[in-house]
Amino acid sequence: RENPATWLGWKLDERGFLLDGRVTQSEGAWFARALPKVRAAFARIWATRELIVSMDAVIAWRPWWREASWTPRTEGLHVDQNPFAKPAFACVQGMLALHDVTPQTGGLEVVPGSHLPEVQDRIKRKCPRWERSGEDWCPLPAGVFSRQERTLVEARAGDLVLWDSRLVHGGLVGQGAGGKAGGKAGALCSPAVKAVAAPPAAEPTPADAAPASEEVGESVGPPPACEPAVDLARLSVTICMTPRAWASEEVLRFRREGHFEGSTFTHWPHEARVSSSRCGRGTANEFVPPRLTPGQIELLG
Averaged over 6-11, what is the pLDDT? Predict the structure, then answer.
């Protein structure tokens, strides 16, 4: 993630979502999903440890302040639970932040309280077409909620953010770091000393030894200005768990097949719908599923 040359092969969509099954079904994604504290959080919500987990997107935003073409084009405010078809509490979405989420980076923004009945009624009046579609992906038209009604959910790396699936939310691109790397990584600087004679083979120099003498190096003056290190601006794993009992045997079988094929699903674990982008499809010859641990197999179903 600190080598931009490797980013060229990533199948990022314009939102900065990685939907390729080689990522969403990778060892790293499964490690995050099965973290004990993540599972414990959802077990507390649903009062059971018999859970299955979503196999959804990984979000990776490149530092767009370095390259304008990297700027994410987010999906805007939306809900992921149709207020006509599913008006009651039905799902909790989650996001595990692997980088700090700050006003500079941006990230998840929400409209607090928008899951409540009176606000849901307001949304339905503005979006009557959702009743006909029945789909859970429900994008809001501009102007339904003002800038003042929204808030960025700031987080530290390692935080798990959870929200009711009826909540209005979306991605917010941050202010940018102005080329200062947001303080997330150290600086890469040219050395202030250049070697003029290789030292003889010997034991490694202790870390607390005196500075190099003039025999092995000569000063070339003060170090040049440091170039900030490159790192991703945002990195998060989307995670949702629901009770295993909610899934039919057909759905569980489809989930297992999808894992071994490298498919990417939506955030509804017990409905097992393949992501509409289907970026995980067509890579069967390239995808090798990771060996899952017993706990991960439980979450797969």
Answer: 77
